[in-house]
Specification:
With about 260 residues, the protein is mainly α. It has helices spanning about 25-35, 40-45, 50-55, 60-80, 95-105, 110-115, 120-135, 145-155, 180-205, 215-240, 245-255, and strands at about 5-10, 175. The radius of gyration is 19 Å and the shape is globular. The N and C termini lie far apart (about 45 Å).
């Protein structure tokens, strides 16, 4: 077998034509995707130019360190995150609380301690994305699902223009081997590192004032958790009802602009 990811036809996704097509559920997922983020992420998006300016002020050695930590942490974090399935269920608030504590500890000592806590931030985010995949019945230890977890992390940045629910991943099911997964990590790591650099820069924007690293970390994690839940629910619906029809319905629903801010 080739080490590369090999696309298969969407028609090869097992379908259950007897089940009713989930029109309403897909529309609700599109609505959730439009609303994903919450007030703090919305504020960060509005402050995008200032955050970009702060990111440029990060010393070059710090940016190189962020890149190196990200690449070193991703595969390790995927393995550590998998241990979560054996841990007791502490409820939906446990991960945001842990992220907040991590962010507070990181922010306490400035840029140096903020960079030092990045491996924990990476582990928490990957763990919450992984949990969303598992909740939809996917095996998060399958290399193909690990690849989707990484793509969710790379495309779901709260500060970028991508909504994190790009439906291209639904159109073909990939067979991913270990070496191909390693190459994917190397490909996506710079984008993830840029997102994490933006997070550190956001914590340094003066206008945020009392908003601490704890709040920024918790907002990031909650944002990724919501996008992951939408992403893997769509993947499950594509598996059950056919990729092309699910993609078309989601794209149509996502393009509908809400009336009077009601959506």
């Amino acid at each position: 077998m080739s080490d590369d990811a090999t696309p298969q036809s969407p028609a090869q996704l097992p379908a259950h034509p007897s089940a009713p097509f989930p029109e309403f559920e897909i529309a609700e997922l599109a609505k959730r995707a439009r609303k994903a983020g919450g007030p703090l992420v919305t504020l960060l998006q509005k402050l995008g130019n200032r955050i970009e300016g702060q990111l440029r002020l990060l010393p070059e050695p710090a940016r190189r360190q962020i890149d190196a930590i990200t690449i070193a942490s991703l595969e390790r974090a995927l393995g550590v995150a998998s241990l979560g399935r054996h841990a007791p269920d502490l409820g939906p608030s446990a991960a945001p609380i842990a992220a907040a504590i991590s962010g507070a500890a990181g922010g306490a000592g400035g840029i140096a301690t903020s960079i030092a806590e990045l491996p924990l931030t990476i582990t928490l985010i990957l763990g919450t994305i992984r949990a969303a995949a598992e909740a939809e019945g996917f095996d998060p230890d399958d290399p193909a699902i690990k690849a989707e977890i990484l793509r969710c992390f790379a495309t779901g940045t709260p500060l970028g223009g991508d909504d994190g629910v790009n439906t291209a991943f639904i159109g073909a099911r990939l067979t991913v081997t270990g070496p191909a997964l390693n190459r994917l990590i190397a490909t996506l790591a710079p984008r993830i590192a840029a997102t994490l650099g933006q997070k550190l820069a956001a914590q340094a924007v003066p206008v945020l004032g009392a908003i601490s690293g704890a709040a920024v970390n918790a907002a990031f994690l909650s944002h990724y958790r919501e996008l992951a839940r939408i992403r893997f629910r769509l993947l499950r619906l594509a598996r059950d009802h056919g990729a092309e029809r699910v993609i078309a319905r989601f794209s149509e629903a996502a393009s509908v602009k809400p009336l009077l801010g009601s959506a």
